Write a sequence for this structure.
């Protein structure tokens, strides 16, 4: 169980801070919810405490792990002969996992492919989403603003 003030990652949405833990009645049932403030997009989410683990809610990575994630961005991409649909599905599974290393691989792979051959509209949207998710976690892990976190990500990929 997480506490108020904890920095957490919610897969497909990015990193946020637990602002409150409240009982809410929804559809006639009262449940305890984490109230998350997501700095990216200034969004609030309610996640049932009982299903936090099931949906993949996890702690933000620590500073040491940030360095390992940034190294993953620098690694050479493995060539893929899969068609765009298979690549898209494989990348989507990585995003859904919420794992920082998997998301870094998606960013790296799609950014490299964009430079080499360009991306389809779907893949470009996925790259933007993956970048935002990763930037949100880097920002909270390193206590950076979004712009500095994006610069850190971009610098790591040069």
């Amino acid at each position: 169980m997480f506490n108020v003030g904890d920095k957490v990652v919610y897969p497909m949405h990015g990193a946020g801070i637990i602002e409150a833990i409240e009982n809410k009645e929804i559809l006639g049932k009262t449940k305890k919810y984490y109230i998350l403030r997501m700095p990216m997009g200034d969004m609030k989410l309610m996640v049932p405490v009982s299903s936090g683990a099931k949906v993949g809610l996890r702690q933000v990575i620590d500073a040491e792990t940030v360095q390992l994630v940034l190294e993953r961005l620098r690694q050479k991409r493995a060539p893929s002969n899969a068609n765009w649909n298979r690549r898209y599905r494989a990348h989507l599974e990585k995003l859904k996992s919420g794992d920082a290393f998997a998301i870094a691989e998606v960013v790296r792979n799609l950014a490299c492919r964009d430079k080499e051959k360009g991306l389809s509209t779907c893949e470009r949207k996925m790259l933007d989403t993956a970048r935002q998710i990763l930037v949100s976690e880097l920002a909270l892990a390193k206590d950076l603003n979004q712009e500095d976190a994006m610069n850190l990500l971009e610098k790591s990929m040069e």
About this structure: DSSP finds five helices and five strands in the chain.
